[in-house]
Amino acid sequence: MSLAQKEMVEALKIQWKKLWQERIDDKVRAEGMATDDYCDLFVDRGTVIHATRDFKALSFSEILEQHQILNADRYIPPSPQVGGWNKFIKTNITNQQPRQKRRADSYVEAKREKQQPKKGGRGWLHK
Q1: Where does residue 36 rank: exposed (0-12), middle (13-18), buried (19+ CB within 10 A)?
Q2: Which of 83, 106, 120, 127 could crosslink 87 through cysteines, CB 3.0-4.6 Å?
């Protein structure tokens, strides 16, 4: 059962990417439209898939739920608003390991004794 679901999700992902790559962007109305029919994604040709105002965007997770795929969140990475995988790794994995001090961090450069400036600090005057 899970192999069939995984294959279906992969096929849907391919169609999803194709939908977004082949869309027509209308710059006057500030919206993107589908160029073909995508039956598995429940999108018809000419359907607005992206707009700037008062628009409910398409959601891949909702499409997976309509196909009755169990644990749809498992196939979709978290949204950038939540943080994504990189934020999860930074907050949960890398912070658990104690940071070792580097040798360069503990190095303190020895202070030099200042030399007397040439020509009494007036620079290189040739007069």
Answers
A1: middle
A2: 83
In the DSSP assignment, the letter for residue 38 is B
Greater confidence, 47 or 117?
47
The structure's pTM equals 0.56
Instruction: Considering only the C-alpha atoms of the chain, give the largest distance between any 2 of them, rounded to a whole number of Å.
Output: 94
81 and 59 in contact (C-beta within 8 Å)? no
Q: What is the pLDDT of residues 19-68, one digit of tens each?
A: 889 988 888 888 888 888 988 888 888 888 888 878 888 888 888 888 88
> Torsion angle, CA of 73/20/41/36, rounded to 10 degrees?
-170
